[in-house]
């Protein structure tokens, strides 16, 4: 695919998926979260007047709980505290790069696959400026009749298109149980919420999901069969266009500072964190919310250093090189991050 074709496809997708982003699965707008946090006694007092706040618009593709540090910072008004006027938009992963190029968003919150694909196939210079989850968070959930890897052979496994984060996650967990993708029938259905509905409807016999979707599947009677918890993976972080780093420097510095405080607050203020998970994921089962919180405080913890993971990026480069982008085999992880903002944070 040429750079022109890549951008043309992305721009067409943006128009289509931008409408879908306004649907019922979208996270609440930043203003709604700020209104809710105004009543919370834990909210931080802004250090700058609204007229002096620097705008930052972040794009997020799915309401997965791995984004909790960003949500916490929004709910607690930590962005305002650091001089930033923060807005959160729902933007599908396939539409993220066009949105960055058109300056509809300033940063995207994502795992590594879309960013590396845009860089390597479209020559779009995107870099991680911070990362707060550098380990894998997914688990495989199966029909109760599946008891062994042998039982899973030939079965339908819900996933997403080749080269996407969900595809990577699925292949990684299959490897954990000693199976190759060719041993099963991978069905590219879409994002996590679609796959959860598919297994509940009996359309597939297995899915690989992060929290809270993994706990939703478990609660619906689909037990965990295996997991890849803790394996290297740049699961979530903040990405910006390298050519815009100087232009956005002051706002990005405040954004990164608030992001780290959001990760710290997640651990320190469990009652608030539970409210935030419920509000942003729209999960109304308190047990699933509780399990999600416990997962990110015991199984895979948020990395307060915000340092992008070389090992995690290399794992994704290896995956892309073997599946959809041969050029990834010659790329280096350091090409895809810029730590100037986290380097300035207090130690």
Order of helices and strands: HHEHHEHEHEEHEHEHEHEEHHHH
By helix and strand content, what is the structural category?
Answer: alpha/beta
Poorly predicted residue ranges:
1-48
What is the CATH topology descriptor of the largest domain? Answer: D-Maltodextrin-Binding Protein, domain 2
Main sheet specs: 5 strands, mixed
What fraction of the residues are assigned to beta strands by DSSP?
A: 15-25%
Q: From the coordinates shown, what is the CATH architecture of the largest domain?
A: 3-Layer(aba) Sandwich
Number of helices: 14
**Radius of gyration computed on alpha carbons:** 19 Å
What does the overall shape look like? globular
For the record, what CATH class of the largest domain applies? Alpha Beta
What is the average per-residue confidence, as pLDDT, rounded to a whole number?
86
- Provide the CATH superfamily of the largest domain: Periplasmic binding protein-like II
Which strand order do you get reading across the main beta sheet?
2-1-3-10-4
Percent in helix: 40-55%
Number of strands: 10
Count of individual domains: 2
Terminus-to-terminus distance: 43 Å
């Amino acid at each position: 695919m040429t750079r022109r074709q890549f951008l043309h496809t992305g721009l067409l997708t943006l128009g289509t998926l931008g409408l879908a982003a306004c649907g019922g699965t979208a996270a609440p707008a930043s203003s709604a979260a700020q209104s809710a946090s105004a009543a919370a006694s834990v909210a931080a007092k802004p250090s700058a007047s609204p007229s002096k706040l620097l705008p930052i618009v972040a794009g997020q593709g799915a309401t997965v709980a791995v984004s909790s540090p960003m949500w916490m910072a929004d709910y607690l008004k930590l962005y305002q505290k650091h001089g930033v006027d923060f807005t959160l938009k729902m933007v599908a992963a396939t539409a993220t790069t066009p949105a960055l190029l058109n300056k509809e968003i300033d940063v995207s919150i994502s795992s590594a696959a879309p960013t590396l694909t845009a860089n390597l196939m479209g020559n779009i210079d995107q870099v991680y400026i911070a990362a707060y989850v550098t380990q894998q968070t997914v688990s495989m959930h199966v029909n109760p009749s599946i008891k062994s890897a042998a039982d899973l052979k030939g079965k339908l496994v819900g996933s997403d298109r080749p080269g996407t984060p969900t595809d990577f996650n699925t292949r990684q967990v299959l490897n954990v149980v000693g199976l190759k993708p060719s041993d099963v029938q991978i069905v590219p259905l879409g994002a996590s919420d679609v796959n959860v509905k598919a297994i509940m409807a009996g359309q597939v016999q297995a899915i690989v999901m992060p929290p809270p979707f993994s706990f939703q599947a478990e609660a619906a009677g689909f037990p965990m069969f295996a997991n890849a918890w803790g394996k290297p993976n740049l699961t979530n972080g903040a990405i910006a266009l390298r050519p815009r780093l100087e232009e956005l420097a002051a706002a990005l510095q405040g954004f990164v500072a608030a992001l780290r405080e959001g990760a710290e607050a997640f651990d320190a203020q469990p009652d608030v964190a539970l409210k935030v998970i419920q509000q942003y994921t729209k999960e109304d089962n308190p047990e699933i919310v509780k399990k999600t919180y416990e997962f990110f405080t015991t199984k895979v913890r948020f990395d307060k250093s915000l340092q992008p993971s070389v090992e995690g990026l290399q794992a994704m480069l290896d995956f892309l090189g073997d599946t959809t982008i041969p050029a990834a085999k010659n790329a280096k992880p350091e090409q895809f991050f810029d730590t100037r903002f986290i380097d300035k944070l207090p130690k």
